[in-house]
Design goal:
This protein is α/β, with parallel strands linked by helices. The chain has 16 helices and 19 strands. Helix 10 (227-235) packs parallel to helix 11 (255-263) and helix 11 packs parallel to helix 13 (292-305). The radius of gyration is 23 Å and the shape is globular. The site of iron/sulfur cluster (SF4) has 10 residues, from helix 8.
């Protein structure tokens, strides 16, 4: 057999891209590729791109500029380096990428990754290959599953895609165009993936989808199953200690999901439920399809099902026509919900989306000022949430060794990093930890003899007073 060729893959954007990158690696393993961390010695470089904001998609072209030099250096050393652009910029821009950056050999959209080996062969034969179709077959049926050694090397937590694409058409967003219509995978295939991961040491699964709670995959009974029912099913798989899902849309929260939070100790009481704005007028212009009053009612349902629930969100500031009053409503919402964490972005007009043609663009200085003010409020809320956790005993899933000798790092139910001094035997175990200290966003703690009361996969109904008082 020939010496293995080296593959370097770099992902931008969301968790879906991280997951897709692993599946591309798994598929190319069968083509005799091994991963390398260094782009300069790679025979194949894949940029797995994101188109969500202008800054994200422009990054690709600066990276391609650097890669052109690396490719020239390789050629001088007698080596052929192939460059692939995958992901959402590939889907949105297609052949335009090759016009702007002729160094690119293959352009492949997110629904065609199972054709990568063939596209690479085509590029070698014809000099170039471009594929941005939305095929009808599920790409995951044809992408190779990970080998046991690869699963073990990736650690005790894993993503699993259950749904892809989006039918919501928020007026600012490119995802419905880059990822296509909503498609759910079958329950049997998802359960097979989760079992394979659990058999190889994975303890925590995050089900991912652009709009994950719109999941309606076919169950073993031939009927469409909602996400809540899928979670019930997966919670029964041996070895799975924790379940999460991301990202949800408020309009697709149904009773099955609320019931899952009430009934499944393994389902973590932490939910990313983006709202984007606190103003009904802006929500309508964004086509988010719900009001702030409805959002509050949804949050209340989760809290009634499990009192230690905490929430995170995404916000956009400076959406066209956003007034000072609209922005004040966003600040009021953040203060009222008391998010444990949140991301905020300046509105970025995206080609082909309805909002890009709307009147009332907010000027750059106002956007900057609003973003700074919102981020300051979010940070102070996050700090208050974290300080409120000190002294409490939380269940922690230990993931890896820390930077300091003897230190092991894990995560709480709320994804807070927690450091303890312990033997590496605890990696992969969920153990109660009393939180004793906090440095920026990282906690320190001691393994506890007492079981955890909050965010625990054993004790379901303890209250997290830090969020309810916010
Ligand atoms: N499916 C997820 C979000 C995907 S994009 C959802 O529905 O929430 C992640 C986040 O990027 C969005 O929640 C939004 O806050 C932000 N975003 C999307 N398009 C944007 C744009 N044009 N400008 C600024 N932020 C944007
Ligand atoms: Fe984009 Fe809206 Fe779909 Fe989220 S729900 S992916 S923001 S269109
Ligand atoms: Fe970006 Fe595409 Fe994900 S645009 S956020 S990589 S779905």
């Amino acid at each position: 057999m020939n010496a293995p060729r080296k593959l370097h893959i770099k992902s931008y954007g969301c968790q879906m891209n991280v997951y897709d990158a692993q599946r591309m690696v798994d598929t190319l393993t069968h083509e005799n590729f091994v991963e390398t961390a260094n782009a300069a010695d790679a025979d194949l470089v894949i940029l797995n791109t994101c188109h969500i904001r202008e800054k994200a998609s422009e990054k690709v072209y600066s990276e391609l500029g650097r890669l052109r030099e690396a490719k020239d250096d390789a050629a001088r050393a007698g080596r052929d380096m192939k460059i692939v652009v995958a992901g959402c910029v590939a889907q949105a821009e297609g052949a335009e990428i090759v016009r702007r950056a002729p160094v690119v050999d293959v352009v492949v959209g997110p629904q065609s990754y199972h054709h990568l080996p063939e596209l690479l062969r085509r590029a070698r034969r014809d000099g170039r290959a471009i594929e941005t179709e939305f095929p009808v077959v599920d790409k995951f049926s044809s992408l190779a599953p990970p080998q046991p050694a690869a699963i073990r090397a990736r650690g005790v937590t894993s993503f699993v895609t259950v749904q892809e694409g989006c039918d919501k058409f928020c007026t600012f967003c490119v995802v419905p165009y880059t990822r296509g219509a909503e498609v759910s995978r079958s329950v049997v295939k998802i359960a097979d993936d989760v079992r394979r991961l659990a058999d190889n040491g994975v303890r925590e699964i995050t089900l991912i989808g652009q709009n994950v709670n719109a999941f309606h995959g076919t169950g073993p009974d031939g009927k469409p199953w909602p996400l809540g029912k899928l979670l019930h099913h997966l919670a029964g798989i041996e070895g799975i200690a924790r379940l999460r899902y991301s990202t949800s849309h408020p309009c697709d929260v149904d009773d099955s999901l609320i019931a899952a939070h009430r009934d499944l100790p393994a389902l973590m009481p932490y939910l990313h439920l983006p709202v984007q704005s606190g103003s009904d007028h802006i929500l309508a212009a964004m086509n988010r399809k719900h009001t702030i009053a409805e959002y509050h009612r949804i949050i209340e349902k989760f809290r009634a099902a499990r009192s230690d629930m905490a929430f995170s969100s995404d916000f956009i500031v400076g959406f066209p026509s956003e007034t000072d009053d609209d922005f004040a409503a966003t600040l009021a919402l953040v203060a009222e919900i008391g998010y444990a964490s949140a991301y905020s972005f300046k509105y970025s007009p995206r080609p082909g989306t309805p909002a890009a043609d709307m009147q009332g663009m907010v000027d750059a200085a106002t956007m900057d000022q609003r973003l700074a003010q919102l981020q300051e409020l979010i940070d102070s809320r996050q700090a208050a949430f974290n300080v409120g956790c000190i002294g409490k005993t939380f269940d922690v899933l230990f993931e890896q060794t820390g930077r300091r000798a003897g230190q092991i790092v894990g995560r709480s139910a709320y994804l807070q990093p927690v450091h303890v001094m312990a033997s590496s035997d605890i990696i992969g175990r969920v153990l109660p930890v009393t939180l004793t200290g906090l440095e920026r966003y990282s906690f320190f703690g001691d393994l506890s003899a007492e079981p955890a009361r909050t965010g625990s996969s054993r004790h379901n109904h303890a209250s997290l007073t830090t969020t309810t008082g916010a």
